[in-house]
Amino acid sequence: MIDLKDKLVLALGERDGVPGPALEACAVSAGAKVIYSATQCFA
Amino acid sequence: MDLEEQGTIKRVVEGSERSRMVVLLGTPNKGSTTMIALTLTQGDPSYAGPLAGVPLGLPIHHILEPEVREAIPADVYAREIGPLEFVLDATGISAALKDVRAR
Predict the structure, then answer these.
(1) Which of B6, B27, B83, B92 could form a disulfide with B32 if both were Cys (CB 3.0 to 4.6 A apart)?
(2) pLDDT (tens digit, 9 = 90+) per residue, B2-17?
(3) Domain interval for residue B27
(4) Chain A partners within 8 Å of B73 (Cβ)
(5) In this complex, is the C-beta atom of B3 within 8 Å of any C-beta atom belonging to chain A?
């Protein structure tokens, strides 16, 4: 298990995968601080 | 990853405490995972963007990896990731990260 507590997370989501806000929610719930979040779209 | 986003990430990484940083990916397949993981560890492989020749060396994880899932409360993971866990190419994603980490 990785330790996300007190980590600074860059959340890079993708529209066809997992979007940035979902990654953010997961990271924050594990004790991390999200310093960048985006959802890419390659359509 | 487009050129503008590369520039933004470069500024964010340079402006904060790099030793505490972790990248969390939500990419859908092997190809997109490889491209982003390479860009954020060794630099832009296309040599077109601000991260060309800039090896940030950030630790990269994907939200579908078991060691990441274990770090997240089960109820949050189920709500935020849910069925995507079974739709995305977890095997290809895992192989892509293994390959990039070995380089």
Answers:
(1) B27
(2) 899 999 999 999 998 9
(3) 3-102
(4) 29-30
(5) no
Helix segments in chain B, DSSP class H: 3-14, 30-41, 66-69, 74-80, 84-87, 90-102
B17: nearest CA partner in chain A: A8
For residue A25, what are the domain limits? Answer: 8-40
Quote the number of domains for chain B. Answer: 1
State residue B54's pLDDT score: 96
End-to-end CA distance of chain A: 34
Greatest extent of chain B over all pairs of C-alpha atoms, in Å: 41
> How far off is chain B from A16, nearest CA to CA, in Å?
6
Question: Could you tell me if B72 lies within 8 Å of chain A, comparing CB atoms?
Answer: yes
State whether A2 and B61 contact (CB < 8 Å).
Answer: yes
Q: How far does CA B64 lie from the centroid of its chain?
A: 11
Q: Which amino acid is at A37?
A: S
Q: How far is residue A17 CA from its own chain's centroid?
A: 12
Facing residue for A10 by CB, picked from B2, B12, B32:
B12
pTM of the model: 0.94
Whether residue B19 is predicted with pLDDT greater than 60 in this model: the reply is yes
Tokens of A42: 């390659």
Per-residue pLDDT, averaged over A6-19, amounts to 96
